[in-house]
Amino acid sequence: MTVLAENDLEFDFSSAMEAIIFDDDALHNPSTMKRVDFIAEYTDRCLFLEIKDPDQPGAANPEAFKTKLLTGNLIPDLAGKYRDSYWFRSHSGKVTKPIHYVVLISMASLEPALLLAKQDELKKSLPITHKDWSAPCAAGCAILNLDQYKKQFGANSVRRLSAGG
Q: In the chain, where are the structural domains located?
């Protein structure tokens, strides 16, 4: 069973063939490359997962995060993480399956409608398709809250460590 943690959130990737912490300097050497937090490979797809957790206990400034999201300043950063991660994996010969990019934003005060609007912005910012490309650079892109993530990947796919159990 593969279980990986990002601060106070623990993810169960037991149904994946492989799951790695991709945002790891030991894997990439120190560089300016932006990286998604995790990459999980399944039989039919690859998941690039980026986690933002302003609800974690002791988070420095959740309101600053919310402002960054609302003003649109977070979207270019999220797009850059996908593009750099895709570039690295592609040049490593590891882009062999459709890639789904999921951003988990664990902030209970955000409305799902806002996340959907930001998801549309992210799709445009990546971009997923281009007239000169023979195929899209991603099979899908989603920004989900914690409840949506659990509905998509299973009730036990993620848990908050500080909540126990």
A: 3-163
Q: Using one digit for the tens of pLDDT, what is the confidence trace for 55-113?
A: 999 888 999 999 999 999 999 999 999 999 999 999 999 989 999 999 999 999 999 99
Query: How is residue 116 annotated by DSSP?
Result: H
Q: What pTM was estimated for this model as a whole?
A: 0.95
Cβ within 8 Å of residue 56, ≥6 positions away:
7, 8, 9, 106, 160, 162
- Going by C-alpha positions, the residue among 78, 81, 62 that lies closest to residue 22 is 81
CA gap 114, 119 in Å, rounded: 9
The label of the residue with tokens 């159990």 reads: 165
Residue 49 CA to residue 28 CA, distance in Å, equals 17
